Predict the structure.
Amino acid sequence: MNGLSVIFAPLLPWPVIWVGGGVALVLLALALWRGLRGWALRALAALVLLAAIAQPSLQREETAPLSDIVLLIDDRSASQRLSDRADQTDAAVNALQAQLAAMPNIETRRISVHDGADNAGTELGAALAEALASEPRARVAGALMVTDGQAHDAALAPVLPAPLQVLLTGKRSDWDRRILIETAPAFGIIGEETAIRLKIEDMGDVPASTGGTAQITISIDGKDPKSYTVRTGRDLELPLTLDHGGQNVVQFSLAPVEGELTDRNNVATVQINGVRDRLRVLLVSGQPHAGERTWRNLLKSDAGVDLVHFTILRPPEKQDGVPVSELSLIAFPTQELFVDKIDEFDLIIFDRYGARGILPSAYFDNIKDYVERGGAILVAAGPEFATVESLFQTSLGDIMPARPTGRVISESFLPRPTDIGLRHPVTAGLKGAPKPEGEGDDTGPHWGHWLRQIELANPTGEVVMSGAEGKPLLVLSREGKGRVALLASDHAWLWDRGYDGGGPQLELLRRIAHWEMKEPELEEEALFAEIEPGSLSMQIVRRSMEESVPPVTITLPDGSTQEITLNETAPGRFTARWSAPEAGLYRLKDGDLERVVAMGPASPREFEQTIASADPLAAAIAGSGGGVTRLEDGIPRIREIRAGRPSAGRGWIGITPRGATATTDIRVQPLLPAWAWLLLAALLTVSAWLVEGRNRRGEGGAAA
C-alpha cells in the first residue's frame, strides 16, 4: 500500500512566514487600490517566494498490513477445578484456538492464570493488564477470557481498545455453603469467656431440601468436638473458654451437604493466644533477711502480678508483754488466705519461712491439698529449713521433693545446671551457665557465686541445679495435679545485687513460676510448631528429657499422613523443617502429644466465592463493549464486527479488526528545486512590471 503526502521543512520559523504572508496581503491590497493591472502576477510572485521559504516536499510511504492480535486467557485457578469446570475450560480453549487459527490475519496470544502467591486468589486483572502492555494496542482486536469470573484483582483490569468477551464456566444450578469468621479476638483470658462471631452463608441456587439449617462442629486444639444445629444466613456469636496458655487453635467445621460445590470452605480456624489475666501470688516471708525485699521488688515490678505478702516481722520468742490483740493495726485474714480463697492463688512462695506455730498445722494440710488439686508452691529455703522448724516437719513434707539433712553449708559455691538441667526448659539455655561439675575446664565468664546452701538428700524430683559439693540446689517435682519447686538457698538475691558478676535471677525465677503454672512453653515434654510468616513452611519442635524421640506423624488436610524425623539441635530440643503442600489444618502427633497447626487460611481465598459470576469483571466488560457468554449454553462462534456494533449475540461473540499497518519505506522529494522557485518568482515579477508598463504607455498615447 502506498501513500502520498506533502510535508514542509521551513527555512524560517512559521511565525515569520505568516508575518511575511500578512505583508504580502497588505501590498496586494495597495496594488488593487491603485488599480495596478499586474496585481495578480505580483500576488503569485509573493506566494512563490513564501512557498520557497516553506520548502514543500512530496513524501511517498509504502506500508504493509499487520495482523490483528486476540488475547486468549484461560483461568486455571483452584476454583476452576470444581465440578466439571476444568473440562469446560479445556474444551472451550481448544475450540476457540481452532476458530482463531482458521481466521485470516489473526494472531493468538495464550495466557494461563494460576493461583496467586500468598493466598492472593485469581489475579485475572493483573494478567490482562500485563498481556495488553506487551502488545501494540492498535493491533489488539479483542480478548477472550475463559473463567468462572471470580477475579480477586478486578480493579487492576485495564480498559481494552477492543471487546472483552468473558466465557463463563460452571452451571446456573451450582450452589455452595461456606463458613465466614466475622470477628475473633487475637487474645483470650484463660478461664474467662470470650466470643467469636461468625456466619454460615448459602450461595447460588440453594435447594429447598437444606431447610436453611446447618450442622456445625467446634473443637479447640482438635479435642472434645461439640456439634450444634444453627440457622444459615444469620450472625452467630459463640462463647468459648480457653483452658491453657499459649496458642489455642479453634476449628469450626460444617457437615458437608450433598450437591454443594466443595467442602474446602466448610472449615475455618481461629488462633487465639491464651493469656492469664493476672498472676496471683501469695508470698509468705519468715525471718527478715537481705533477700526478702528482692523477692518483693521482683514481684511488685510486674504489672501482671497481684501480690499478697504475708510476713512475720515479730518472732514469737520475743516477750515484751504486748497483748496479741495489739500486735497489728488490723487483723490479718489468715483464715481467708489459707482456707477460703487459697485456690484463687496461682503460686504460693515460702521465703525462709519457719514453722513456729504462727500458722496452725491445719493450714499446712490445706496447702498440701491445694497443691495436689493443681496448685503450686515454691520454697526458697534458709537455715531454718535445716532445723526442727523446717517446713519439711509439717504436712508439706509429704510433697517436698527432697529431705533436709540438717546441715547448712556456709561456703562459696558456683550454682551449676546438672545434666538433667541442661535439658530441662526451666534451666536450659540460661545465659552464662557454667558447665556441670566434672565436665571439662570452665574458666570463662559465668554466673556469680552464692555463699550458703541447705544440704538436701534423697531427692524424689528432678535435680536441675547443683551447688556446693555437688549437692542438689534446685529440685522440681510434680505432686498430684500440682507442682513443687525447692530452692535450697536463700542467696539468689546475690545475683540481683551483681555480686561476683551476678546472674540471671529474674529469668530463672520467672521460668520456675511459669513452669509451676504449667505454661506450655516450659513443659518438659512438648510438641509445637513455629510457622514462618507468609509461607507454608514450619519448624517442628519436640522438647524431651529423653536422649532420642520417635518420628512425628503429620496428618494432612486430606487425611493422609507423613512421618518426619527430628534431629537434636540443642540439649532436649529436637527440630525439623517441613513445608506443607497446601494451606489447611495439620495435626502433629507423637505418642500422647498432639498439636493442631493452621497453615495459611483453612479456607483459601479461592473458595470464598465459588459460584461462577462475571460481576467482578463487569466494569472491564462494559468499558470495552464486550459481553458475557455461558459455556453451559455451548461454545460460541467468533465473528469480526465493526467498532461500535454489538459484540455478542445468541451463539456468537465478536472481535474488532483494527486494520493496523507497518511502514516499510519512505521517500521524500522536493516539489521544486530552490533555483526553480527563484526563477519562477522572478518571471512573475518581471511579467507584472511589463504589464503595468505597457498600460502606462497606452494611457499616455491616448491622452496626446
In short: The mean pLDDT is 86. The CA atoms of residues 413 and 468 lie 5 Å apart. The chain has eleven helices and 37 strands. The first helix runs from residue 14 to 34.
